[in-house]
Amino acid sequence: MSNAYCILGNPNVGKTSLFNALTGSYEYVGNWSGVTVDKKVGQLKKNSGHLIDLPGIYDLVPISRDETVVTDYLLHEKFDGMINIIDAAQIKRNFNLTVQLLEYGAPLLIGLNMIDVANKRGIRIDHQRLMRQLHIPIIPVIARTGKGSDEVLNALADRHVSRQRPLKIHYGDAVENLLTQLVKALPTTLPLAQRHYRFLAIQYLLNNPAVLRYLDEETLQRFETLTAQFKQFNTIDDLEQHILKCRQQYIDTMLAEVVTYPDAERQHLTERIDALLTHKILGIPIFLGMMWLIFQITFTWIGTPLSDQLDAFFGGPLTDQTVNIMNKLGIYPALQDLVTDGIIAGVGGVLVFIPQILVLFFFISLLEDSGYMARIAVIMDRMMEKFGLNGKSFIPMIIGFGCNVPGIMAARSIEEEKERLTTILIAPFMSCSARLPVYGLFVAIFFAQHQALVVLSLYVLGIVVALLVSWLLSKTVLKKDTSIFVIELPPYRLPSIKTLWRSTWEKGKGFVKKAGTFIFAGSVVIWLLNYTGPSGIDVPIDQSFLHMIGAAIAPLITPLGFSSWQTAATLIPGFLAKEVIISSMAIIFAVSEESLVATVSTHFTALSAYSFMVFILLYTPCLATVAAIRKETPSWKWTMLAVTYPFVIAYVLSLLVYQIGSYFI
After folding, report:
1. Is residue 115 marked as binding?
2. Looking at the predicted structure, is the pLDDT value of residue 643 above 90?
């Protein structure tokens, strides 16, 4: 059986970057906290074993679901060693977790990350001396570039991370005597090895909820008796604060011998930039300006011209060559129609938007890796407090711009349960990449001169609706106490080309995968419904099953401005995946992508097109998002609410857009 190691550290110290370097895999990274919310497993290079990437935490006493994942892992899982990655520029704060891991007693290796950043700030760390003090391997690394990862792998392969004695901080004679009694009171039948018993006793005194769940009722009663006796005969009233104070004194004394700081703290470039980007008045306009520029590049300057070239390929050479090959092979005409009018028209109708999606993902990755995304959360915190949330909820919302599913999962980092649930329920209003093909088609047809502005308005509308729903929930079914938003602002940094490329490709690859699965399947089903009817196969379109379905729904959406049965029919497969809406249009209208533009322009006006995009933005989440909501809540009540109430909101807002707009246009 291969060795298993886990990688731990504070949020945003480069854990996942080092995980990727050590395993050769790629997990989502970002220059902000809260990116990893669940454990991930990879195979170490050089056949050194398995590596588990755990969520970033500041302390082993968990206060949120993602932090509970880490403590539960240490208590219940078997592994051979730990890799603790530390931000060298913030070594004092990071060492609070390191000391707890040393007290836990499993073999530990420290990866001293961002040593280059620390040096630029004038911070000097004698890691060799620190290694001698702690008696564990310490390896300087730069996780973003992979520097030092080979040394970490060699240390693991050469068994340098071997059995180590648990760290014993002296908490005073009285507390030490209590810890000894608590350790003796622990049953020898616990799954956890006895070298971890002192750790359990310390964490009990810190009221660690994971440890309280781990111990049986009889043991807890013995612990309560011993603790009560201690408090009766000692002057230490608050054991928790006493332990934390002793631990911090140990850290201060140890680091004073190995860390040298610059004499005078100078204002770094990061602080000067923050003064502008997080300004209480200018912060939001700057953010909106950046998003407008990104959409302008995506839809006007770069993305759309590239999409037009890909569109010409799908509608011309690919279709023509496919038809020629099928004619030579004598393929049955119905199958030819399935391939050309179903698969190529359906899947190709979505794939033509890949350039726009990749361009958008590139710039989103640029904002993430530069450190700006964390600042956006700070900017929005002031506004979100008025709507029953705080800036921490905005992080899952930002992630939702790529895909709502990881955005919903990212809500695990929110400590307050009702706030977490509210965030999950509003996350689907974020305009994910799946809606982008719909926007791309309609803004190109009806808003050619203002594409970026129209798309930006939809993204802003999604945020506004989410905040209003949050306010309503916080005043009714999800009333809660006000929580405090605390986030670490990472330093600004120039993103590496490798990181940007991998991040962009991984996000774009998911879109391509959906084209080969959901969109392919949806295209085939839509074609079959369009090709068949009660009277048989190859029926006139007005006698098809799809026409029957669309015609039944069309009267319901007529007040919204898009009354054709074809439009109505596209909304149903949109529940499977929002991209299928465009592929369905290409199949239903039975035209090439170039002709699709002309056909759509006859079924919509500029006003009804905007109303349609508002409806697509807000109506029922896709199947994958619904499944994520069910998993994260977990409740059928909240899941069904998440399915139904967005449809009502979408209908009402689209109705208002079209009916009010009709008076002015």
Report:
1. yes
2. yes
Based on the structure, what is the number of domains in the chain?
A: 2
Q: Give CA–CA dist 416/390, Å, rounded.
A: 11
Question: Is 177 labeled as ligand-binding?
Answer: no
**240 lies in some domain:** yes
Query: Was 444 annotated as part of a binding site?
Result: no
Q: Please check whether residues 291 and 262 belong to one and the same domain.
A: no
Crossing angle for the helix pair 391-399 and 417-426, to the nearest 10 degrees: 30
Residue 270 marked in a binding site: no
Cβ-contact 219, 257 below 8 angstroms: no
Q: Report the candidate in 584, 590, 647, 576 with the shortest Cα–Cα distance to residue 617.
A: 647
126 is an annotated ligand-binding site residue: no
Residue that finishes a domain, picked among 209, 236, 266: 266
Distance separating alpha carbons of residues 582 and 356, to the nearest angstrom: 15
273 occurs within a structural domain: no
3-class state of residue 591 by DSSP: coil
User: CB count, 10 Å around CB of 177?
Assistant: 12
Name the residue with tokens 């009889």.
Answer: 218
- 534 exposure class (CB count in 10 Å sphere: 0-12, 13-18, 19+): exposed
Q: What is the largest CA-CA distance in the chain?
A: 96
Q: Is residue 487 part of a domain?
A: no
Residues 397 and 456 in one domain: yes
Separation of alpha carbons 380 and 585, rounded Å:
37
Cα–Cα distance, 608 to 420 (Å, whole number): 35
* 556: helix, strand or coil: helix
Residue ending a domain, choose from 266, 291, 313: 266
Beta carbons within 8 Å of 338's beta carbon, 6+ residues apart: 524, 527, 531
pLDDT in tens, 398-428: 888 988 998 898 888 787 889 999 999 999 9
pLDDT category at 625 given cuts 50, 70, 90 is: very high
End-to-end CA distance of the chain: 71
Owning domain of residue 328: 283-479+501-662
* Residue 31 known to bind ligand: no
Is 38 annotated in a binding site? The answer is yes
Residues 6+ apart with CB under 8 A from 443: 299, 450, 451, 454, 455
Residue 96, annotated ligand binder?
no
Find out whether 24 is annotated in a ligand binding site. Answer: yes
**241 part of a folded domain:** yes
Q: Tell me: do 157 and 299 sit in the same domain.
A: no
609 labeled binding residue: no
For residue 440, say whether it is annotated as part of any ligand binding site: no
Residue 365 buriedness (CB in 10 A; 0-12 / 13-18 / 19+): buried
pTM, full prediction: 0.81
Question: Cα dist. 176→102, 169, 195, 389 in Å?
Answer: 17, 9, 16, 43
73 plus 191 within the same structural domain: yes
Clarify whether residues 258 and 359 are in a common domain.
no
Model pLDDT for residues 240-284, shown as the tens digit of each residue? 999 999 999 999 999 999 999 886 555 567 788 888 999 989 999
Residue 23 belongs to domain with CATH number: 3.40.50.300
Q: 344-354: buried (b, 16+ CB within 10 Å) or exposed (e) per residue?
A: bbbbbbbbbbb
HEC profile of 116-172: HHHHHCCCEECHHHHHHHHCCCEEECECCCCECHHHHHHHHHCCCCCCCCCCCCCCC
Answer yes or no: is 114 a known binding residue.
yes
9 is in an annotated binding site: yes
20 carries a ligand binding annotation: yes
C-alpha distances in angstroms, 191 versus 62, 78, 194, 267, 559? 21, 10, 9, 51, 64
